[in-house]
Amino acid sequence: MNRHIINYIRRFAAAAGFVLVFASAVWGIYAEEPAVKVFVAGNPDMYPFEYYSDETGRYEGVMPEIYSRMAQESGYTFEYIDAGGSNKQEHLAKNRQADIISIHLKGDINSSCMKKEYEITGFSDENGENTICIGFSDIAADNIIKQVSGYLSEMTDKDMVKLISDCTIGQEYQQKDQKNKAALIILSMIAAVGLAGFLILLAKKEADKKDRIYEWQHSIGDMNYYRDCFNNINTRQLKSLYYTAYIAFDEEAVSQRYGETTETEIEELAAVYFKNSNGPEDFAATIKKGTFILLFQKNSPADAQKHIQIIMDGLRLLLVTEGKDEYRDIFHAGIYALGDDISCSSEAAIYNAKQGYLQALRTGVPYSMSTEAIVRENKQKERLHHRIAQAIREGEFDIYLQYVVDRDGSIYGAEAASRWANPQEGLLKPSRYIDSMIQTGLITEHDFYLFSLVCSQLEEWQQSGLKDLFISCNFTRQSLAEHDFISRLCDIAGRYDFDYSKAVIEITENSFVQDDQAIRNNIKECRAAGFKVALDDIGSGYSSMQDLYRYIVDYVKIDREIVINSTEERGQMFLKGLVKFAHSMDLEVLCEGVETEEQNRAVLDAGCDFIQGYYYSRMLPKREADRFLHQRRRAGSLDVYKSWEECPH
After folding, report:
1. Which segments of 464-531 does DSSP mark as H helices, in order?
2. Dist. CA 67–CA 45, nearest whole Å
3. b (16+ CB within 10 A) / e for 216-253
């Protein structure tokens, strides 16, 4: 081919290629304008609005979601700079490296670093009112400020609450105070807009009440569903990752107090919530009225507890937002790690998780981890629980006495307490069985049985010439509220020969009953029959100052904590005022829990009439108490030596 023709073709091809490349570039410019990049300085510790997740290595929460939505609707892309666990917002603002100073509390960032600050919402906590804002730095373009502010202003409070809920319910975050702050924010916004339907937005957006009832009764699963799910966790490795949570409320008490309709509504709300809080490998079931079981995976006991904390926080929040604020604390939870016993059955897992629930119930906390020690202790309590009635019938409870002295240090009387000589468990203190007695309703039988031992001891003292000594016998308010209390009391006392004024009916503070009028009537009847009456632990618990005018009694016992604090100046002033107040009502005062010489001087200086505590006497079994008393009589005085080494042990 002619060389000139070849060169011409080459030059034409090159020119054509240039034209194609140029045309392509021009088309690209006009066809798609490159996105404008907006740099954001994030807040790693502002859950749920914005926080840095170590797990994902990026910012999570409400604002990242809003930035993502804005990016889809605008020509902007939002990029967090210098992302990490430490807050560098002010530094980035001062150095003009960020367009947006994202979520922060008003006043946290120097206003001189910002061109504009946009207020999103507010909430109240112990520090007062707080306002959540985002800011725009000096380098932020006006059109960026206008578009971002405009987008946020178009969001309704309802939209924001929904978005916050999506970023909190079922999500985990390590800072408890931040979770609490999230709840405060949501509650503040709900209060502002009155969102009665918030739960439905949270749990099932499209479900109406009828659908929720259907789901509760059919979709959440029952005991058989739970067993099937449990049995599917059939390898040791898989089972070691699972935890069982026993979450319940006292449905009988709620039903009696508020009605069956309210009880059903609470179950319904909880059922839908638990089902919608599940992860893909988790299961939820209701096994009986008021009781739910969750099976869920976590890597460690700490993670499991964190998960249940979030679940319980969310449940409380839902009850509040559904207008059931008074029920928000009725649920408690127990957690059991299946890995603790790989061979345990589905029923055993429920039992073990329930022990954590019972522990949470007793200690007044939202949840408790069920440990081997707790399970063992509760099994022992169950054994004792079943043995109590038999133990009372067979006289397994012995009387113990702790002597009380007057201001001169002479024995004036004693307080009686019981000890259970259990054939299997050995000698048990009241702390091991009193709660079980209250729960089973057997505490009244115990109280009257101990009173019979007190009457016997007073008769014995009277016959041996010690007729001036008194004995106080504890009665719970539950016992004192019984309609036949006074008839039973007098029937027992009538079997013995002693001065009734030496039997002191001591009202304990460890239980509460509704029938306060019955207690008042029985106190009046006791005093009319010749018995003395004392109020225990004045200054703490149920024995409030109101009891001093509500109940007409003869003695008051000052709480041990007040005695301990009486060695300090303010504590001494308080004790003196309390004693003076009691004396002004013609009441005699006994200070209990005195253990040191300093405390002894303090209660004497305060004007206390009688003293009780280890400084003078420990709680002694009857035989040792008798021996100590007779030793003092042989010495010619009932004075007690005021030294720890010489006090009766």
Report:
1. 477-480, 485-493, 516-529
2. 18
3. beeebbeeebbbebbeebeeeeebebbbbbbbbbebee
- Asked whether the CA dihedral 350, 351, 352, 358 is positive or negative, the reply is positive
Tokens of 601: 């001087």
CA distance 356 to 285: 18
Whether the CB-CB separation of 507 and 526 falls below 8 Å is answered with no
The per-residue pLDDT for range 300-359, each reduced to its tens digit, is 999 999 999 999 999 988 888 888 778 888 999 999 999 888 888 888 899 889 989 988
Gap between the Cα atoms of 28 and 33, Å rounded: 8
For residue 339, give the DSSP letter.
G
Contact criterion met (CB below 8 Å) for 568 and 538:
no
pLDDT band at 377 (very low <50, low <70, confident <90, very high): confident
**What DSSP designation does 553 have?**
-
In this structure, how many other beta carbons lie within 10 angstroms of the beta carbon of residue 47? 27
Residue (of 420, 429, 363, 347) closest to 387 by Cα position: 420
Per the DSSP assignment, residues forming a β-bridge with 287 are none
412 neighbors 405 (Cβ within 8 angstroms): yes
**Can you give 26-60 as a three-state secondary structure string?**
HHHHHHCCCCEEEEEECCCEECCCEEEECCCCEEE
Share of the chain above pLDDT 70, in %: 80
List the one residue out of 400, 418, 399, 405 whose CA is nearest residue 594: 405
Which pair of structure tokens corresponds to residue 68?
A: 């993502």
Please state the pTM of the whole predicted model: 0.48
3-state secondary structure labels for all residues of 222-234: CHHHHHHHHHHCC
